[in-house]
Amino acid sequence: MNQSRERSNHREQFRSAVYSDNPQALASVLIQVTNVAPTKSLPEPQPPRDDASSSSSLEDNFGNEWGSVLKFWLDTMEFALAGYAVRAYETQAQLHAAFNQLFGSSPGNWLVPSLHAVCKSTHRLAKAADKEVGKADHAKLQSAVTLLQESFSRTFNDRKEYNNPDAPLNGVDGSKKAGVLAVVNELFVIYFFLNTLRLCKNLVRPVEARKLHDSGSMSELVTYKYYTGRLALFEDQYAEAEQNLEFAFNNCYKEALRNKRVILRYLIPVKLYRGRLPSTALLEKYGLTEYAPLSDSMRKGDLRTFTDTLERFQDVSIRQGTYLLLEKCKTVCYRNLFKRIHYATGKTQIPLSMVVNGVFRGVLDMTAMDLDQVECILANLIYRGFVRGYLSHTKRVLVLSKRDPFPVTTVIAK
């Protein structure tokens, strides 16, 4: 009896949201299904069939699509509240498919917030279902991708032009492209989780070709720039990565310290590689003090400390995908070491034996570094533009340019 009364209350809540003129009202109702509390001890619920009047008023006014969405939503709510994530996801997937159809045939763009809520609910329930199943193949999340991709198509392929991002949502002539960025961001989250980054380009190319990546709420823009910044980082496009991640950091809500910290975990390695070292105050504020010895050792050219620190945080940096970039920062460390030698000696001709046997041996990361290794490192620095000069192989001497022998790293790092 209580289950039937609760279902009736949910039905009335849904109906009121549909009839309201507030686009956010229905979205707030649809997002409720994400609250899944596993309770395996309960008997599996069997949602009652709707009686003849369960969705008749919705069907009479809006067509059969609303009746289907209502039924699947009620079923999903019951399974979710009972703690059955797999069954909840299965009915949510049916809801999502029905809502995609409804969204595509609806006038205007007043259902955009509701589509976002449905996409978010499908994503969360898919992860909960995979956790309940206990397998590592993420089968439910993989199937959720297809539903979200269809949602992306429904928004992106709307024929109405999206010229005014500040225009209020309406059910007459609003463009459904207003919903593109939020759906793309939800897909980004899934793609990064599943490590299928190659699929991100299928979203980035059409969105940026239509200039839709500049239209949206600030939270949507911050999320988009964060993921495209990470994508650029993995593709070795460091200038673009820095630009996007810096936008995300500067425009992230100032009180969202956790989000800012997550952004900095990728922004700081990019800046280190490009020769822009973070301040101690910044690292302490966001609890990222592990970067302090890396930054300090790069500034001093202290290769031993740099290598020891990188090894200490190797597992963490590998998990977040920044280890290879931090490893590349060793090149900057080498550059600053030779710059330090140049300033200490005041010479433009530096014997390589000074590096191997001199006072700077203590900051090297290899106790048995020989002349050939030093010459190889210098040849690479000269080739990449970190050092201006040439090597005399016969005399084992580095001959530095008299004019700006160590160009600014931010100029030469690409």
Description:
- With 414 residues, the protein is mostly helical.
- It has 21 helices and 3 strands.
- It has helices at 2-19, 23-30, 56-62, 64-82, 85-105, 112-133, 139-156, 180-194, 201-209, 218-234, 238-251, 257-273, 280-285, 291-300, 303-312, 314-319, 323-328, 330-345, 352-357, 371-384, 409-412; strands spanning 349-351, 389-392, 397-400.
- A 3-stranded antiparallel beta sheet has the order 1-3-2.
- A hairpin with a 4-residue loop joins strand 2 and strand 3.
- Helix 3 packs across helix 4 and helix 4 runs antiparallel to helix 5.
- It is elongated and about 90 Å long.
In short:
The protein is mostly helical and 414 residues long. The chain has 21 helices and 3 strands.
Would you tell me the structural class of the helices and strands? mainly alpha
Q: Can you list the strand order of the major beta sheet?
A: 1-3-2
What general outline do the C-alpha atoms trace? elongated
Fraction in helix: 55-70%
| Count of individual helical segments | 21
Strand content: under 5%
Distance between the termini: 67 Å
Average pLDDT for all residues: 85
Task: Give a short account of the largest sheet.
Answer: 3 strands, antiparallel
Give the H and E element order.
Answer: HHHHHHHHHHHHHHHHHHEHHEEH
| Tally of DSSP β-strands | 3
What is the CA-based Rg, rounded?
28 Å
